[in-house]
Amino acid sequence: MAINDLVNKLNVGLGAAGSAINAIEGVLGFGRDGGQEKFSINKLQGSLQQAGGLYQPTMWLLQLTSPLCLAGDQRPINFLCNSGVMPGKSITTFDHKRFGYGVADKRHTGAAFNDITFTFFMSNDGEPQTYFNEWLENIFYTNASNSIDAASPTGTPVFNARYRDQITVDMQIFLYDIAQNKIMQYTLHEAFPTVIGEQTLEWGANDSFGVLPITFTFRYYSMSTIEPPTTSSSVGLLSSFKNGLGVVNKLVNQSPVAKVVQALNIASAQKLF
């Protein structure tokens, strides 16, 4: 009798443990409830595969064209861009109390767009510092070292601002999937740089490269999704870009190519990008 009682207790205990495990699986979403699958790993994987997978923040490119005040400038600033952010948006509100007292509710008044910052690699030929300094000097000319009546090379009087359409551009940020297909585009409308950030100088930074932070403001942004092609191309844009950078790196270290800009121009002429 004692042995039978022990066996019965073990069966009851195992049954209770199994019920507990099933309950935990149901809470975590790994089991079945009423014959219908809840949140399973396979279902999650299937959903992600259907969506094309998760986005990797390394798959992006910046497209920045020169404004009218720098018309014709072909310096390859885009290729020096190291990091950036996707633009954000917020709704401006104010606290409203219906009867002048009590708990307040939020009332919307408009939209606000935050300035964004990109960092650019600094080369030994003065880029992109020279490029963005010229852009800011065309926005508001401040060089009065020669004369208070002096004008900029483009004719802007010192301490004067240029018209908005002369200094703004539409900037594009392109996102790519792991197959290097363009999947999304952000356009920053009427953008222009407002801040050339400080550059850190450090004696002990032997294994790092100089980066220049540039802050842009813009009026608003728009975004659009892009359907990937049904058949992938043999060489994607990002592959071409990365291969081109590898060639540029070799060119920079070879004589007589001494400047990054020269190397980029050579690579572009050879259709490496």
Average pLDDT, to the nearest integer?
A: 76
Content of β-strand? 25-35%
Rounded to the nearest angstrom, the distance between the terminal CA atoms is 85 Å
Number of strands: 11
List the quaternary state of the chains: single chain
SSE sequence, one letter per element: HEEHEEEEEHHEEEEHH
Task: Give an overview of the whole structure.
This protein is α+β, with helices and mostly antiparallel strands. It folds into three domains: 2-49, no CATH class; 55-231, Roll (Pnp Oxidase, Chain A); 233-273. The protein contains six helices and eleven strands. The protein has helices spanning 2-28, 41-50, 129-139, 164-167, 237-252, 260-269, and strands spanning 32-33, 36-37, 60-63, 81-83, 89-96, 105-113, 116-121, 169-176, 182-196, 211-217, 220-225. Strands 3, 4, 7, 8, 9, 10 and 11 form a seven-stranded antiparallel beta sheet that branches. A two-stranded antiparallel sheet has the order 1-2. Helix 5 (237-252) packs across helix 6 (260-269). The protein is extended and about 70 Å long. The N and C termini lie far apart (85 Å).
Features:
single chain, about 270 residues, alpha+beta, Pnp Oxidase, Chain A, 3 domains, 7-stranded antiparallel beta sheet, two-stranded antiparallel ribbon, extended
Layout of helices and strands, plus pairs?
Elements: H1 2-28, E1 32-33, E2 36-37, H2 41-50, E3 60-63, E4 81-83, E5 89-96, E6 105-113, E7 116-121, H3 129-139, H4 164-167, E8 169-176, E9 182-196, E10 211-217, E11 220-225, H5 237-252, H6 260-269
Antiparallel strand pairs: 1-2, 3-8, 4-7, 5-6, 7-10, 8-9, 9-10, 9-11
Helix pairs in contact: 5-6
